[in-house]
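Lab notes, practical 5.
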Amino acid sequence: MALDGILLAKILPEIQETLPFRIQRIYTISQTELLFHIHGNAGKKQLLISTHSVYNRILFTKRSYPTPNEPSNFVMVLRKYLEGAVVENIQQAELDRWLTFHIRRHNEIGDLEYLELYIELMGKYANVILVNAENKIIDAMKRIPPFENSRRTIQAGAMFVSTPSQNKKNPFKEDVVDTSISLTKQFSGFSPFLAKEVEYRMANGQSFHSIMQEIHDSKTIFIANRDNEPVFHCINLTSVGPCKEYPLFEGIDILYYHREEKERIKQISGDIQHFINRQLKHQQTKLPRLLDEYETAKDCDKWREYGDLLYAYQIQDTKGQKEIILNRFEDNQPVRIPLDEKLDGKQNARKAFQKYNKLKKGQVYLQEQIQICQSEIDYFSGLLEQLKYADFTTAMQIRDELIKLNYLNDKSSRKPKKKKKETTPAYTTITTKNDIQISFGKNNLQNEALTWHMRKSFIWLHAKDYHGAHVVIHSETADEDTLRLAANIAAYYSAGRMSSSVPVSYCPIKNLKKIPGTKPGMVELGSYKTIYIDPSEEQLEQYIEL
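Output from the prediction step:
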């Protein structure tokens, strides 16, 4: 669900309050997101602009957003023209879903010039377009060539054509409603969802004028769930059911941040998930083949028997024969011995002993390879599980781990950099109602740092027989509520999240042993206890933003 023109009109005044503001820095967050660091009447702020087809929006945000090492070409153009420039005014096209930033800057030779930045938030047509004083397009985030749209070409050098007005009534100024026509066709700014809410209220006796006055006066956003999908607007959603109320920008940030983060992870991290899936498939295909080879190698004694029999019977001329049948001395039972047609009896006996020795030695090698293969399957399965619930920082740490273990090449920079001091990955820590801290990791590096940098008497937890988070209670003892909360975290951030009665092992950290030569996050447990828990989001939502 995207913003409509009326909701955009509610957002705009809060941005206008900061005018004029200077654009200090511009960053790429993803292929569809820009982050402007600005300084205006309200001090320093971060202005987020998204042109995602579903999550397009504009708002001030306090969240920390990662930025890629290489900015896009469009961002390089924006930096050239807009960094240091001043936004003097922002206008909305009536109640349509696009804004115009009126910008003043000094060019390279110091001359004053004026530019316009168009922010179009119209679903799949959402775009950001930079236009000069002659109304020519300097560049755009999404370029549209003439063969795609002959009426409106969005290309560098083309004349800018604004989105045509819809010529609808302004619902804040005119309140005469034709009940035979839908509100979206009569009034500008209405989305189909808002139209249904207003029509529902009118059917229950509320006047159109009072509804629009309620929208006009609102400074918050109401969020509800409908068919497991969030719906929202700046008035209480009586047609849907119970709502949660948030300040406007905070609510929009909550709505979209995590939904777009999954795409951001995929875009910026170089599609780690695809790499892990490929590696996992390779190892899963390899394992049955190794097991078959091992079963064959275990049957090596028959080749020693073949060689013994060929020598014992002093078989000489076997050239041209594919097999020979000889009787065992122990039980006089016939044994069918395969032969190489090109070799005589002694040579075939020697070849049988060579195969026996090869297979016998191969058993040790194959056992090692099977163990390595199984370990790789467990490792990549664990990474895949971690990526399901990873935020951007966690995903990038997984990428760093793969680089460190030489699975991936570090392509962040072609130039050699000075070796930086390694920093300890930041794990998550919460404080319970009993004022006890609980920490947990969301990937192997965080788990490793958490487990081995805590007091040895603290309580450690992990979902038994599942890939998942390491959890530490910052205490030598724990009451039942704290223990169950920590166990809930361990079960929730594990492959057993959707299961019931998930077994969670717990013990003091001193009972753990680090296994030499294994991947990060692997431990061996000494004595431990087990608690069974049903993973619950409701309990965790009180402490963690899920």
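Observations recorded by the TA: The chain is about 35% helix and 25% strand. The longest strand covers residues 21-30.
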